[in-house]
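Researcher: Sequence recovery benchmark, item below. Answer with residues only.
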């Protein structure tokens, strides 16, 4: 499992799949993978595997139940359908309706299933729910960490391109004189959501990792502004 030093740096992280397979098993991961068919590339199985890997590292550092955390991370976006601007309650219900019978069929005890359902139910940023359990806090942190840093930059532009959003508002790219509207302009998503995620982390480990990834976002925006304004 990944180790985190006191500064929150991850060392010798395993491949995305292997950390989860060691605890959950390859066969279950393959079955979960089928639930992600049709998802957009920013919310596909590779996203779930990255979240699982990060969540397991945070769980180890914070003392959370690794099985609940790993299962919740793998299943948090499963069967929810393609990404759109507003996550629907129906999509969330489809995920929960899928998770419980799957875990029962695989023989997980009720206490694990309940913990997974709680974590999955409250993980979404758009719901604005403060999670009550440590495992749910770990999942929220890990999912939001995947939205920032280098991978977060890649995901936001992948999603924006799929939805046909223009890159930025040519009159005010960095939202200095207007409210951010990420339904209209892709770069606005940094200001409406991504730059806010760092302050919303729950665990000490999540906060340390978010600080480092937040620096990546800010450095990118500084470089982007220079290229837009100077053109050289």
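Model:
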């Amino acid at each position: 499992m990944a180790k985190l030093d006191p500064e929150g740096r991850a060392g010798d992280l395993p491949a995305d799949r292997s950390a989860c397979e060691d605890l959950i098993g390859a066969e279950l991961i393959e079955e979960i993978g089928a639930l992600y068919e049709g998802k957009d590339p920013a919310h596909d199985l590779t996203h779930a595997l990255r979240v699982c890997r990060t969540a397991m590292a945070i769980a180890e550092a914070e003392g959370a139940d690794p099985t609940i955390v790993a299962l919740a991370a793998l299943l948090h976006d499963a069967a929810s359908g393609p990404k759109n601007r507003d996550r629907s309650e129906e999509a969330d219900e489809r995920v929960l309706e899928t998770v419980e019978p799957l875990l029962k069929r695989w023989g997980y005890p009720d206490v694990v299933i309940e913990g997974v359902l709680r974590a999955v139910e409250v993980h979404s940023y758009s719901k604005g729910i403060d999670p009550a359990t440590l495992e749910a806090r770990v999942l929220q942190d890990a999912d939001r960490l995947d939205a920032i840093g280098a991978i977060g930059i890649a995901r936001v532009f992948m999603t924006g391109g799929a939805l046909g959003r223009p890159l930025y508002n040519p009159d005010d790219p960095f939202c200095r004189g207007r409210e951010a509207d990420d339904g209209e302009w892709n770069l606005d998503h940094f200001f409406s959501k991504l730059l806010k995620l760092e302050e919303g982390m729950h665990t000490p480990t999540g906060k340390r990792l978010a600080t480092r990834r937040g620096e990546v976002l800010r450095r990118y925006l500084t470089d982007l502004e220079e290229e837009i304004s100077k053109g050289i």
